[in-house]
Design a protein that fits this description.
The complex is a heterotrimer of chains A (308), B (420) and C (298). Chain A has 308 residues and is mostly helical. In chain A, 72% of the residues lie in helices and 0% in strands. Chain C has 13 helices and no strands. The chains are: A mainly alpha (308), B alpha/beta (420), C mainly alpha (298).
Chain lengths: 308, 420, 298
Amino acid sequence: MQPKPPPGLTPNGLRMRLGEWLPFALLVPSLIASFVYVFVFTGWTFYISLSDSSLLPTYGWVGFENYAKLWSSRRWNIAYNNLFFFSTFYVLGAMAVGLLLAILIDQKIRAESLWRTIFLYPLAVSFVVTGTVWSWLYSPVAGIEFMVQSLGFENFEFALTASRDLAIYAVIITGVWQSSGFAMALFLAGLRSVDQDLVKAAQIDGASSFRIYRRVILPSIGPIFIAVAVIMLQFAIKTFDLVVALTGGGPGISTTFPAIFVYDLMFQRGQIAQGAGAAIMMLLALTVVLVPYSLWMVWRRRRDSGHG
Amino acid sequence: MRRAIVLGTALGALAVCGSAYAQPKTLMLHQWESGSDAAAIAKLGEMFEAAGGAWEQTAIAGHTSNTLAKLRADVVAGSAPAAVQLKGPEIAEWNATGRTANLDDLATEEGWDEVVAPELLPVMKPTGSWVAAPMNIHRINWIWGNKAVMDEAGVADLPATWDEYNAACEQAAAIGKACLAHYSADWTDATTFEVVLYGMHPETFKAAFVEGDLDAMRSDEMIAALDQMRLMVSEHVDPDILGGGDYDATGQSLGNGDAMFQIMGDWFIGNLKSWGFEPGADIACAGAPMNSGQPGFILNSDSVVFFEQSDPDFIEGQRLLASLILSPDFQTIFNQAKGSIPARLDVDLSEGFNPCQQVAQADLTASIEAGTLVRSMAHNMTVLQKFRGAMMEVITEFVNSDMSSEEAANLMADEVEAQI
Amino acid sequence: MVDAVFADDPAARAAQRAYFVNRVVIYGLLGVFSLIYLLPLAVVIMNSFRPLPEIAEYGLINIPRQIHFSAWADAWGTYCINGACEGMKRNFMNSLYMTIPATIISTILGALNGYILSKWRFRGSEVLFTCMLLGVFIPGQLALLPWAFLLGQLGLNNSIAGLVLVHVIQGISFTTLFCRNFYVSIPDDLIKAARIDGAGFWRIFRKIVLPISPPILIVTVIWQFTGIWNEFLFGVVLTSGKQQPITAALVALAASETNVRNFDVMSAGVLIGAVPPLLVYFFGGKYFVRGLTQGAVK
């Protein structure tokens, strides 16, 4: 995109020139606010992570000591591992379910908006509520296990949250339940934007609908896969309220997540500096996801504008 | 000119009114957001208003992390609340920031030093000056027994030692009942474990959990207590409740007779009543087992810390609030609702308190005489939050894994050391 | 059925059978997934009408044997949460006072920013856009203390106005992203032609951009409204006493660990707290997918 040409020498030259500045002036408040929010807040937190802050933020310098402590903390390592495990299955799960639902809904079904609403509504519900209600369902003494057993299947077991090894799956299932509707909406949006001529041509060639999806439709919505994955990953890294309400990080510390760790250290335990270090590590994790994505976006934009 | 004079007079009049009719005000930050706790605090508000004050409160759910986050945010924003529910070592920590108010005048006037339980004095006066007012004394080391189940199993009395307890559990198993109603969360695991350790080796409890001594954490005594804990969580509890229950389900399983015993602090009294069980009658209570046969008492106390204010109305409000909190009236009303006993030792418990609370007061006195009284680690009365957090983490992980007792003991010492 | 005419033709019959099987599979799968998606909602709705002893006896997942409505009245007006026995009505209103202005302001700002960043680009505007985008990724725990300090300096701590400010600034990134990506697809020639005709910044915005904006504005409104309504960390920590939003009450209901769990009141409270965002979704859901097609997915 080329910069706008300079305003013509019309009788309204001055007004035009003012007009040139107006957009920038209107943008300034948002820019300042975002700058403070993004850079000052992060910078302050980074500085605090190098300080001796404990109960309240203080500014004595200790260097990278807090990071060393952080990475030797067993709980932090568990939290980080959990994040990788959870992110992988949560993102893949939400994408798989979302894609399946989108394809089903795209089959010219009746009452489409009703089905869509059913799969979208979890998005409207807060993480706290989702976590609480699902913790009821997982409860072996009153939830699904209890219900199925009282139907006569005495040996039925579904006590995910009660088990140290399985609790993370409870978080994954709940996360997928919450977010797959969003993935569905994005995929559906993509499916609807596929060039129908291509599909028709494939149909005329006699391709089965499975084949059409695999060979024609899905490849053309490739960018959406990446967009969905990035949005989901960003949700995953910020995961906090859902886990607090669902498992409280337990049993034991088996479902601790980085955001919970940060909150605990900064606010409950009075280890603000180390908590700030952990927050910076979370941000780093986000950067690892985002930098390649933004580079790819820039590349794609360049390529598109090159073509047209 | 005339307008200026009129304005001046009006302002002057306003200032006079302001000082002549100073109304004590307060804003209290606390975590008793629901149920009987909220009702008890509402009572404090009523008393404050009856004494002519303007009462405001912020109640924050979710144990202390949200309350502390709120406190920190307020302090960072430059407006610390006038009164904050804080406890144990937190009082000393915040006192050290130099932002707490000094209540010595009022304390001398009302003679707090003579009436408040001696164990609480160093907590409320971290550097010699009163900065906090205690509301109650909770006892942690209670064992509760469902009488019907005990009769059925042939257990005559609540166990006095851990051997008796284990024997009783075998009798419970024989009639197909769970022995202990317990669900796993960091604070419940830590509560039960500290009761076990204290009952078996009170000296190790003091060294490890009060003084933070690393060798005591690695000691054979600690390992023995962990062995006992392992036995309890693997053999004595209903695994469904352990992993998937909550406070409610656990208490009800005791009340309904699915389990025989429960170990829980005395706030349990209020819950038992609201579930429709009568503590002292349907549900027997006694101090948790002490192998030494000595009286034992693990103490927890809720208190309110006062933060320095510049507005005279709020300073006046702090004096009024502190005075009300320590008044025998409030200590009676509050503790009857909460199941704890007054922080003042001169309140008569013979009327309106239930039998378990009377036992608690007698045991407190006996335990002070025997020199066995300790403060609770699990309920944040001894070591700093970072050490307590590390200890609780290891305990709850021990419960939820197949870690050996030796490993857990060493891990606890390592984790605490890493926080130093 | 028109197909019936060809029923004798075996090929057509096979095709018809295949079509029928195909439909059964599609509706079958949709049905199974719907059941899973609706189960939590159904459980909460039913429990809000079931008396507590019944829940204790028959578990949380069961049909009501008796129906009572008192849980709703309790949750709305009399239940003791957050230290006062006034139910959730005040929290509910606070959330409305917070969410509506914050949603409107951040949407307007997003639309303007998006318009500028797509149609009035200047040297460096792409870089600025990328910087604004970073705001999407700041974890709330990181921003908490800085916000507290900033609001204290502005005299807005412990006020709904302060929360509105926080949510507006945090929301700008999202709303700008959505709107910019949407407006990019407006042909530049259209704008150029309008400028040659002498239309200025505002006139182009009003006459060309706004009329085609509803789909994307609906997406940002849905996104912002639900996000702000459901946010709990700032709602709990940056407010006090009478200003607390609904999420503070929901957390109180969910987290009261040492108290009896009144599942009926909790269920009713959860539903009361979920009604506004659910309504927004029900009415805007159709546009949500459409707007996403044109906006967010670019």
